[in-house]
Write a structure and sequence with these properties.
alpha/beta
């Protein structure tokens, strides 16, 4: 295998960079989706506001639902499981994606907006564009 065949490293953003990208009001740029790959019981404890929930345990069956025309930011508890999901999508031709380093733990520690408790109806689902 030559070095040109090696996969690109998955870009990483710290939680503040991810939050800034999610809240940036720029009409020319598609707003990223924040994909949380943790299990539902983990989301009910704490989650970044506005996440789309696609647990890693079912990711092999659901990843095709993700839009290719939006930047995708992946988050989990600390950044390990989300990196697995992002790498899978990169291997399947997705280009505009990044892993959120530090995950939800760091998101909370930095005081960024979080929710907890059961997900509200429709919360965590992909919106139909």
């Amino acid at each position: 295998m030559s070095t040109t065949d090696a996969p690109r490293p998955i870009p990483e953003l710290d939680v503040q960079q991810a939050y800034d990208r999610l809240t940036r009001a720029d009409g020319d740029v598609r707003r990223p989706l924040l994909i949380d790959v943790r299990e539902r019981h983990e989301l009910e404890v704490i989650r970044a506001q506005g996440v789309v929930h696609l647990p890693l345990s079912t990711f092999a069956d659901t990843w095709r639902e993700l839009p290719r025309d939006h930047p995708l930011l992946f988050i989990c508890a600390t950044g390990r499981r989300s990196l697995v999901a992002a790498a899978h999508l990169q291997q399947n031709g997705f280009a505009d994606l990044a892993n959120v380093a530090g995950g939800t733990v760091e998101w909370r520690n930095r005081g960024l907006p979080v929710s907890s408790g059961p997900l509200a109806p429709g919360e965590g689902r992909l919106a139909n564009d």
